[in-house]
Amino acid sequence: MTVESQTRTTDREDIAKRLLRSSAKASFDPLVEIDWDAPVDTDRYAIRPERVSLYGTDLWEMLTEEQRKELSRQEIASLASIGIWFETILMQMLVRHAYDRDPTSNHIQYAYTEIADECRHSVMFAKLLGKLDAPYYKLDPVAQFLGRVFKAVSNGPLTFSGALFVEEVLDQLQREIMADESLEPLTRAVSRIHVVEEARHMRYAREEFARDWRKRGPLVQHYSRFVLGLVVYYSATRLISPKAYERVGLDPRKARRAARRNPHWIDTKTWAARKVVETLDRAGAISGPGRHLWRKAGLLGRRGSGSPAASAPSTAGPEAQRA
């Protein structure tokens, strides 16, 4: 079966026109839409407890209920930090994508629209960090360096497959958060805005990746698979900063080691990445050495395990559904 028959795409200008129309109808200013003066409800989890990276481990059992809830807030802050990191990379890649293309086209006008969305999202995540009494969890020097290289040398398939990966993983977690009324209200409000607007971004990335990927020769595809594997590995293994564990009194090295071996956390990452894995695997973008990196990052499930962690159905609302 050919890639064309596996991944159907819409006319580039037509889909961009529809996404522009959707952006005009359902875009948000987080500074206005969210009540930033409301206090954070520390009696609630910020994310479902079973999604916390240490859930089910001996370290989890050692924590008090208050510490567990604080860890959930710090892990949300860590996810927001990596969101800022990658959105900054993505904005630069989108500018490069638009640089030598026709700005009068719907396709490039939507690229500019997405850049504006990502600017607002980065500000929203930064304000969330402050409300959660959390630092900006900056990545380690190796990941920072590789991110700088990636944004400078990425080709079309890498730009859009990398964007799709990070956006899909965060989207799955946030869809669950926004639909769960038992969770902390501020994190639910932030998740709702991000889910609605990222639905358009993922449609744009999914189609542009498929359109560009099928044009590339074997050499570029082999190169892209490996570099994508590196991007995925360094992103997925740094979703939770070791310093987040330190904030609740845990030894960061011991806690990080426990999380990386935790079957519940591996299942959560596999569940969160399942849609992007299906999309990219179907296109032939996850194979060879790159596939090993996906598995090592805990995104292809545990060897010998059953299905990935199950999740309650998520409701993203009509705005996200239409995009």
From TrEMBL:
Short name of one Pfam family: AurF
Low complexity: compositionally biased ranges: 305-323
Span of the signal peptide: none
InterPro entries reported in the protein's UniProt record: AurF/CmlI, Ferritin-like_SF, RNR-like
SUPFAM superfamilies, sorted: Ferritin-like (SSF47240)
Region (Disordered) location: 297-323
MF GO annotations: oxidoreductase activity
Protein name: p-aminobenzoate N-oxygenase AurF
Natural source organism: Streptomonospora litoralis
Lineage: Bacteria, Bacillati, Actinomycetota, Actinomycetes, Streptosporangiales
